[in-house]
What we know:
alpha/beta, two-stranded antiparallel sheet
Amino acid sequence: MNKYTFPKNFHWGCASSSHQIEGNTYNDWTEWEKSEARLVELKRKNKDPREFISGAAANSFMLNDQDIECLKELNVNSYRFSVEWSRIEPQQGNFDYEALKHYQQFIQKLRANKIEPFVTLWHWPIPVWVRDLGGWTSKKILPFFNRYVKIVAEFLDEDVNYWVTINEPLVYSSNSYFSGQWPPQKKNLFLTIKVVHNLIKAHKQAYDILKNIYKDNQVGIASHNIHFDVKKNNFVNKLLRFVANYFWNDYFLKKIDNEQDFIGLNYYFHSRINYGFDKNENKLVSDLGWELYPEGIYHVLKELKKFKKPVYITEHGLADKNDKHRAWYLAESLRFVHKAIKDGVDVKGYFHWSLLDNFEWADGFFPRFGLYEVDYTTFKRTPRASVAVYGNICKNNSLK
Ligand code: BGC
């Protein structure tokens, strides 16, 4: 047997999210992207606003058959994607059953191709009416989120076993309410804490709803964990690492420990603490300047062992338009995933971010995360060279 063979029934997949690929969504982000304030901000930074409006994105809502062809070419057995709250409930209490049927048919097509759907219920944008009620700062939206979860789950449950309730609660809360980079662009610690706690409640309630519908549903969140390293092993750096691990990596997961069947790990960052948080040493970086440090995934996985839960790597990838580092980064990282498995972490799956180039939030269309390149005029999907590399790994369930 190959040295780097993965466990039997390992989930090999890709990940995506609705607002980033579907096209023509209408939610708080869509409005923000076109708002006067945003246009002024982009003008000030000398950027072309057209690059920052999600618009038709990769047109995946219309072209999901093509996406399935890509998944088949990759030999993946799983696909993580999100359903869009604003599409399903465009007005308060007004559910669009055609949209739900659309997702149902997509899921059935995935199943017909032996691809297991992992459905994310909320990947950041909210319907405009939810925003107008105060968004996640307000407890008022919890019953609405519950109702949405229940309706979606009852509709899709027959074909879905794996549910991700919430994507990266801390990335959302900090970017939208603390650093003020994302809508609604608040810079308020008090609101940030409120949002985090409402998201904890939202997850717990969604967990109960999903379990009541079908007790064997597997439910978790996707948590964005960082490998905090110290540059020099002194008291201050170690204290900072402790605090960072506690609040950023563990806090949310501990709060929902009794309400998660698995941990979804999204891994992108390594931070070297040196009396502060250094993101990288600019050794090898992606097109976004993020350090490529394959070993980091091993450490975050090891840190998750204490939760004694199965782990799915629900996202991992890089912006690399010319596909210079993707194959190397993917394979090297997977070697470290394999090492974590050997060291007792129950990793059950890996989802590469992303299947396609997509709308990268406040960074717009320039970062190219896709295994497939998307031509945003014709929507043609073209495989980058890494498709063959990842496709072989998935097919063989092992790496050379
Ligand atoms: C998010 C994705 C995003 C990716 C790359 C993750 O934090 O879940 O939506 O595109 O990182 O930045």
